[in-house]
Write a structure and sequence with these properties.
alpha/beta
């Protein structure tokens, strides 16, 4: 048993090293390499804001108010809301705040991708002149006052797909919301920023992104309906040679779940969505990797292997531990191996969370003791992904709305410190 277990752990460790060492090298790249300033002055552009909202009467006014308070010339911006299968006053509140609202009632094709497609079809029919660019937000978002101004600067520099820095409205609520927040902050800071430093493509993270009229036209409209439509959107365009940029100065605040059951449901959908994307685009990503595309390799690694490899490691060690106990042979070695496996995973996650907390300390809106406490609980939050990811391999998963209720949380009214 002992030689078998050593071999399994050695193989999995080698695969981890091959797949993910580069992401640790991203960290000094971000910390040491400065950004290149925009070379050209920003030109004014006409934008459409797309918001897909399902029963979001508690929060949508906050987003619309933060849009109205932008430093950008908002006469150039039209806000559109798809009130998607709403049974509350979302549509009425959005209209009262000046948005153009289209109501959708379809209980067969359910999900954000379908709502965005519905919205863009109506915009195409009613606004045939179109717009230069299209922003996508979730109803629970809030924006820093200079958000559109900063995004416009990056857009004017020639980037036709732009994502932004994703912060949290409710980091300090509990260990669940903080776990989400640290993961998204790490994604913004140490994945997307690093990718752009290297001249590679970033990835869209669900909300807070912008794409051009050309991108919309070449996509044939919004055609991304998988459970993780944002990852599908990113992969689709990366495979076609597009580079997604990140505007590090455009800060968006997102509300994270605080209820564990709701969190499991959401992350189960994400895990299933990653599997769907890999099934549809995995072969093309691997082909692109073989041809030397760093962005294809990066997206391949981001979509699937981490949780699969971790789950295999734990499953192998746990299985052999149980067999050892049953046979009375080598049980201690197997158990020790399992604990070492778990310990190395938790230690790695603690390092990643700690680096993110330290570098983004001033942008985390919570008391100092909570920042430290939730950094320590971050590995536990991430570890709960393992059973979720395993379940996603076998379960049928459908899109279900996430309840939002955080309106304001003492967020800054000016640009954040950098």
């Amino acid at each position: 048993m002992e030689p078998v277990l050593r071999t399994i752990n050695a193989v999995i460790s080698a695969l981890f090293f091959i797949c993910y060492t580069y992401q640790f090298l991203y960290i000094p790249l971000v910390l040491l390499k400065k950004r290149r300033p925009a070379a050209l002055p920003a030109l004014p552009h006409r934008y459409a804001v797309l918001i897909a909202a399902r029963n979001e009467e508690n929060v949508i006014a906050g987003l619309l108010d933060s849009l109205a308070a932008q430093t950008y010339d908002m006469s150039l911006v039209t806000v559109f809301v798809a009130a998607d299968n709403c049974t509350d006053s979302t549509a009425a509140i959005a209209r009262a705040h000046g948005a153009v609202v289209y109501e959708r009632f379809n209980h067969v094709n359910v999900g954000k991708g379908y709502a965005l497609d519905f919205l863009l079809q109506h915009i195409g029919a009613d606004y045939p002149e179109g717009f230069d660019g299209y922003f996508v937000f979730d109803a629970d978002n809030l924006l820093s006052p200079d958000y559109i101004q900063r995004m416009n600067e990056t857009f004017s520099a020639g980037h036709e797909i732009v994502t932004s820095y994703r912060n949290s409205k409710n980091f300090g609520d509990n260990w669940i919301s903080a776990g989400y927040a640290l993961w998204f902050l790490r994604e913004s800071r140490y994945l997307n920023c690093a990718r752009n430093r290297l001249g590679a493509s970033a990835a869209v993270g669900g909300t807070g992104f912008l794409f051009s009229r050309r991108i919309l036209a070449e996509s044939g409209g919004w055609r991304f309906y998988l459970l993780t439509e944002d990852i599908e959107f990113s992969v689709y365009h990366i495979l076609r040679g597009e580079k997604i940029a990140i505007c590090e100065d455009a800060v968006l605040y997102d509300e994270q779940p605080t209820d564990f059951r709701q969190s499991v449901r959401q992350r189960l959908r994400w895990a299933k969505g990653y599997i769907q994307v890999f099934r549809r685009y995995g072969a093309q990503l691997l082909q692109g990797t073989a041809k030397g595309s760093w962005s294809c390799f990066d997206m391949s690694m981001s979509i699937l292997p981490a949780f699969i490899l971790t789950a295999l490691c734990l499953l192998a060690n746990l299985t052999l531990t149980v067999l050892g106990l049953a046979q009375g042979d080598g049980a201690w070695f197997a158990l020790r191996s399992l604990l070492e496996c778990m310990g190395s995973i938790l230690a790695t996650l603690l390092v990643l969370g700690g680096i993110t907390t330290a570098s983004e300390w001033r942008r985390l809106h919570a008391p100092g003791w909570k920042k430290i406490l939730y950094t320590l609980t971050f590995p536990l939050f991430m570890l709960t992904y393992l059973p979720i990811s395993m379940a996603a391999l076998f379960m049928k998963v459908e899109w279900k709305p996430i309840h939002h209720g955080v309106k304001l949380a003492g967020l800054p009214t000016a640009a954040e410190p950098r």
